[in-house]
C-alpha cells in the first residue's frame, strides 16, 4: 500500500516485510487446526474484502489526521495499527448481527455498510447525519451499528441488552462490542459481562489489549492475565493475534459459533498496539510515555503490510489471469477514490447542512421520528449474509 510520510507513524513510512515477522504471521495461521480450517475455507472475494476493509479504515483515519493539520477539526481518535482487530471481527459476522463500536473502532461502521460520508459528517457536526451535529460518536441502527458514547465499556451492558432482546425474539443474532485493557477494569464491564454470563447471552466482548490505558501501563492496574478473564465469569475466553487479520477472523468465527450454539458470552482477547497517542492532540505525549522500543517492535508488524505481503506471496491467484500484486493495487486505488469521495461529500455538507441553533432541544427524549417503531426491528436471519463491503 502507499505510505503517507506526513500522516503515517514513522515506523510505517518505509515499511518492508521482514522474514521473521512473516514467518510468525504464517505460523499463527497453522497453530490451531480449527482456525486453520476457517482460513483455508476463505474465498478470494473474502480475502480481498478484508484487505479493502483495512485500507478503508487506515485511509479514513489518515483523512481525519489531515483535517486536524488543516484546521478543519480540532482532534481525532484513531485506530492506526489496530485495523486488523475491528475488520477481522466484523467480517466474521452476518449482516443481521449487531455491533457496538467505540470511536476507535470506526472500521466497524463502514464494514457494516455505513457510508464513509456519514462517518466524516459526524466529525464535522453537520445536521444531515444521525446525531444531527450533537455528537461525533456515530452509528446506524438500521445497519446494526449502535452509536456509542465516550465512556469506555458503557456499551457492554447495552450490547448485553441487545443480545437479550434478540434471544427473546427467538433470533439467532450475535451482539459484539469492544473494550480496551483499561476499560475491562470498570464497573460497567463487570456488570454487563456478568449479566451476559449468567443469562448465557450471545454476546462477544473483544478486549483490545494494547498494553496501556491512556497513559497507564496495564501491569500497574491488572495483575491477572486477560486471556483467562472470561473464566472468572464462567464464560469462554479466546485469544488471538490482533495484528493478524486472518487469526482475528478465525477466532471471532469460533466465538460466533459458540454464541449461536447458546454457549455465550465470549471474551475475545486481541493482543495489539496503537501506533499513536490517545488522540491526535497528544501524539508526542504518547511517544514519551511508551518506550520507543515498543513502537519499533510493533511497527515491524503493521497489520496491513503483513496481510498484503501474505496475499502477494499466496500461491493461488485472487483473480484468474491477474497477479495478486496488481489486484491489490487496483483495490487500493478504488478504496482511495471511495474515501476521497466520502470526505468531499462530508465537506459539502459542512458548507450546506450545518444544524440550526433553534433545533438544540429537538429530539432530546425521542429516539426517532416514529417512537412506535423499534430501533432494531426483527429481521429474518439466514445462514448467509453480508454487509455492504463483505
* Count of individual beta strands: 7
Listing every helix as H and every strand as E from the N terminus to the C terminus, the arrangement reads: HHHHHEHHHEHEEEEHEHHHH
What is the quaternary state of this protein? Answer: single chain
CATH fold naming of the domain at 59-80 and 97-236 and 254-301 and 336-349:
Rossmann fold
Rounded to an integer in angstroms, the radius of gyration calculated over CA atoms is 20 Å
Give a quick rundown of the structure:
This protein has helices at 10-13, 19-31, 33-40, 44-70, 83-90, 106-111, 116-124, 155-168, 187-199, 245-260, 283-289, 292-299, 303-313, 324-352, and strands at 98-100, 175-180, 203-209, 212-213, 216-217, 236-241, 266-271.
Polypeptide structure, described:
The chain has 14 helices and 7 strands. With 390 residues, the chain is of the alpha/beta class. It has a domain of 224 residues: 3-Layer(aba) Sandwich (Rossmann fold). A 5-stranded parallel β-sheet has the order 1-2-3-7-6, sandwiched between helices. A two-stranded antiparallel sheet has the order 4-5. Helix 9 links the parallel strand 2 and strand 3. Helix 3 crosses helix 10 and helix 8 runs parallel beside helix 9.
Amino acid at each position: 500500500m502507499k505510505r503517507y510520510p506526513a500522516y503515517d507513524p514513522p515506523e510505517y513510512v518505509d515499511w518492508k516485510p521482514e522474514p521473521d515477522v512473516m514467518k510468525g504471521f504464517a505460523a499463527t495461521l497453522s497453530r490451531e487446526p480449527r482456525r486453520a480450517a476457517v482460513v483455508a475455507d476463505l474465498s478470494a472475494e473474502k480475502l480481498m474484502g478484508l484487505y479493502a476493509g483495512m485500507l478503508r479504515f487506515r485511509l479514513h483515519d489518515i483523512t481525519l489526521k489531515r483535517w486536524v493539520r488543516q484546521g478543519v477539526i480540532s482532534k481525532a481518535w484513531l485506530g492506526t495499527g489496530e485495523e486488523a482487530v475491528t475488520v477481522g471481527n466484523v467480517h466474521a459476522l452476518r449482516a443481521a448481527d449487531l455491533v457496538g463500536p467505540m470511536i476507535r473502532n470506526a472500521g466497524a461502521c463502514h464494514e457494516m455498510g455505513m457510508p464513509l460520508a456519514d462517518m466524516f459528517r459526524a466529525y464535522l457536526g453537520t445536521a444531515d447525519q444521525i446525531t444531527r451535529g450533537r455528537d461525533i460518536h456515530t452509528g446506524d441502527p438500521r445497519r446494526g451499528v449502535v452509536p456509542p458514547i465516550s465512556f469506555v465499556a458503557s456499551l457492554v451492558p447495552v450490547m448485553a441488552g441487545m443480545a437479550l432482546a434478540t434471544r427473546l425474539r427467538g433470533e439467532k443474532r450475535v451482539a459484539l462490542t469492544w473494550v480496551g485493557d483499561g476499560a475491562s477494569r470498570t464497573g460497567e464491564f463487570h456488570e454487563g459481562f456478568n449479566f451476559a454470563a449468567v443469562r448465557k447471552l450471545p454476546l462477544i466482548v473483544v478486549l483490545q489489549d494494547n498494553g496501556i490505558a491512556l497513559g497507564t501501563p496495564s501491569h500497574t492496574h491488572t495483575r491477572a492475565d486477560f486471556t483467562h478473564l472470561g473464566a472468572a465469569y464462567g464464560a469462554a475466553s479466546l485469544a488471538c493475534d490482533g495484528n493478524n487479520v486472518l487469526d482475528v477472523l478465525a477466532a471471532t468465527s469460533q466465538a460466533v459459533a459458540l454464541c449461536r450454539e447458546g454457549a455465550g458470552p465470549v471474551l475475545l482477547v486481541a493482543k495489539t498496539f496503537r501506533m499513536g497517542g490517545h488522540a491526535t492532540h497528544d501524539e508526542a505525549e504518547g511517544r514519551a510515555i511508551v518506550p520507543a522500543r515498543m513502537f519499533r517492535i510493533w511497527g515491524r508488524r503493521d497489520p496491513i503490510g503483513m496481510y498484503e505481503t501474505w496475499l502477494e506471496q499466496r500461491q493461488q491467484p485472487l483473480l484468474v489471469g491477474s497477479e495478486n500484486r496488481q489486484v491489490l493495487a487496483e483495490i487500493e486505488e478504488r478504496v482511495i477514490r471511495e474515501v476521497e469521495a466520502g470526505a468531499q461529500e462530508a465537506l459539502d455538507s459542512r458548507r450546506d447542512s450545518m444544524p440550526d441553533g433553534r433545533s438544540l432541544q429537538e429530539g432530546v427524549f425521542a429516539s426517532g421520528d416514529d417512537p412506535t417503531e423499534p430501533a432494531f426491528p426483527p429481521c429474518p436471519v439466514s445462514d448467509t449474509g453480508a454487509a455492504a463491503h463483505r
